[in-house]
Amino acid sequence: MPDADPYGGSAALASWAALLADRTRAAIVLALLDGRAWTVTELARHSGVAVSTASEHVDLLVDGGLLAAQRQGRHRYLRLADGDVAATVESVAAAAGHRPAPVRTLSAHSRRRALAQARTCYDHLAGVLGVAITDAMTRRGLLAWDRGLTVTATGCSWLAELGIDTAPAGRRPFVRSCVDWTQRRPHLAGTVGAALCRHAFDAGWIRRIGSTRAVAVTDCGRDALAHHLGLDGRLLHGGAT
Amino acid sequence: MPDADPYGGSAALASWAALLADRTRAAIVLALLDGRAWTVTELARHSGVAVSTASEHVDLLVDGGLLAAQRQGRHRYLRLADGDVAATVESVAAAAGHRPAPVRTLSAHSRRRALAQARTCYDHLAGVLGVAITDAMTRRGLLAWDRGLTVTATGCSWLAELGIDTAPAGRRPFVRSCVDWTQRRPHLAGTVGAALCRHAFDAGWIRRIGSTRAVAVTDCGRDALAHHLGLDGRLLHGGAT
DNA sequence: CGCACGGTTCGGTGGGCGCCGAAGCGTCGC
DNA sequence: GCGACGCTTCGGCGCCCACCGAACCGTGCG
Asked: Could you report how far apart the first and last alpha carbons of chain A are, in Å?
C-alpha cells in the first residue's frame, strides 16, 4: 500500500471484522448472544474445538473488546462486552442470514426449529415469538412505526400496568428495532425490549430450553399473552409444560 | 467440529465477516460508502493494490452480496448492494472505531480532518456537519428523541417547505439514527436523511471535495443552514468558495 | 497433602489466502 | 484495422493463522 490507510478506518474495520471471520469465534460470539456468561470449557465444547484453542480465541475476542471476562475461582466467565457489540453482531448476522447454512442432521433441524420459534437475542426476545409480540403491540396501538419506531402513550401505560419501568435509560435507545435472522422481520429491542423479556422470565411466561438461546412459552405464558396482547396461543406451540 | 454448526449461522456469519476482514476489501467497501459507483481501476488505486488483485476482491464482494456490479462498455461500475449493507458496514465501522487507526502522514491527517468535518455516509450526511444538523433539528423541535427517533409534525412541514417529500417509503425506515465513527454521536439517516442530503447537493449547499466522501459547505450553504436551522457558520469552516 | 479440574502457554504442522506480473480478452477511438 | 485501455484469468510465492497435544499453573475438594 502506497499510503497506509489513506482514508482512515480500513485497517480498524478489517481487524474488527477478522474477529468474527473465523467459524469458531463466530460460534462463540453467537452463543454469547444469549446474554449469559459462559466458561471457556463450555464454549470449547459448544464450538467443537480443543479447550486450548478456545482459550486462545477468547483472548483475541477480549483484546478486541468484543467480550468481557470475569474470573471467579478457577473459572473464567465470558460475556459480550456490551449491548453495542450485541447489536453489531446481530446486524452482521442478519446480513449474513440471507442464505441460511444448510442443515444436515435431524437433531440440528429440531434445534433450529426451536430457535426459530422463540429465543433470546442478547437481552430481548426474537424468533416467531418476538415478531408476534411486536406485531401484536403494533396492532393494539402500543407501538407506532409510521415515522420511526416509537412507543405510544397507550403503550407507556400498558408497560406501566405490567410493572415495567419506562424511565429513560442512559445512552441506550428506548426502543430499537432489531432485524431477525430467521424471520427477516423487525422485532422489539432496546431498553423496552429488554425489560419486556426480563418480565416474561420473571413472571414465568417463558423458560429456557436446556442451556440454549431457545425458550419455550409456558401455559401460564400463553394465557398471559392472550390476555395482554390478544395473541393466539396456537401460534406458540412447543414443548414447555 | 463434532456437529457442523450446531446452532446455525456461525459459518454464515464467519464467511460474511471474512469479506470485511481484509484490509484491501475493507478499504474498497469504505470507499463505496459514499454511495457512488466506482470502477475496478479506481478502487485498485484507492486501496493501493494491483488491478488484478482488486478485480478478484471485487468478485468476492459481489458474490457475497455486498456489492452490485453493472457493466457499461469496457467499464465495470461497482456500488454497495443496498442500504442494508451500508448500514451494517457502518455499524461495524462504528464498533471498530473505538480506537482509531494511527495517522502517520500530514496529507493523511488533513484528509482525515476533512472527512471528520463533513462527509457523506452512503446517502446521508455525517461528520461534524451531519451531527450539527441533527442537533439543530432537535433543538428546533423538528426531531424528537424521547422515545426513539421521530420527525415531529413541525419537522414534517419544515421538510415540506424545503420541497422534500415526506411520503412513506417502502421497507426502508423513515428516519434512522446512524452512529458516526468519528464523532461517536448519532446523526440523521433513513429516507429523510437521504432526502436532506440530496437536497443539500441540489441546492448547492455542499459540494464534494475532489472524489472523496468528504464534502465542503459552500457560502450559499452556510447562509442556508444559518437561515433554516440557526447553525453558526463558524462551526463549518473549510475550503469551498 | 494430594488429586482432580479449569485454564493457559508453547511448538509444530498444515492449509488457506492475499499478493503480484504476465498473458489473454473484449471494447473504444483514431 | 490497429493500438490503447479496462478488466479478467492464471500460476506461483510467501505469509499468516487455526488447530492440536503436551506440559504447566492455580484453585478447590476430599
From this structure: 61
Give the gyration radius of chain B's Cα atoms.
Answer: 19
Nucleic strand C under 7 Å from the C-beta of A63: no
Q: C-alpha grid cell for residue A147?
A: 415515522
Q: Distance (Å, rounded) from C-alpha B181 to C-alpha B61?
A: 23
Nearest-5° Cα angle at A29, A171 to B81:
75
Q: Please give the Cα distance from A7 to B111 (Å, whole number).
A: 7
Which run of H or of E encompasses B137?
helix B127-139
Interface of A with B in 47-66 (CB under 8 A): 47-49, 65
Q: Is A5 on the interface with B (CB under 8 A)?
A: yes
Element (H, E) at A55: helix A51-63
Most distant pair of Cα atoms in chain B: their distance: 65
What's the pLDDT tens digit per position in B210-235? Answer: 767 889 999 999 999 999 999 887 76
Q: In sequence order, which residues have a C-beta less than 8 Å from that of residue B234 and are 6 or more positions away?
A: none
For residues A238 and A84, which has the higher predicted lDDT (pLDDT)? A84
Q: Classify residue A176 by its DSSP letter.
A: E
Q: For residue B170, what pLDDT band results from cuts at 50, 70 and 90?
A: low
pLDDT digits (tens, 9 = 90+) for A154-180: 998 999 998 887 766 555 667 887 776
Question: Which three-class secondary structure state does DSSP give residue A155?
Answer: helix
| CA separation for the pair B46, B130 (Å, rounded) | 25
- For residue B121, what are the β-bridge partners? B124
Distance from CA of residue A79 to its chain's centroid? Answer: 13
pTM of the model: 0.80
Provide, rounded to the nearest whole percent, the portion of chain A with pLDDT above 90: 50
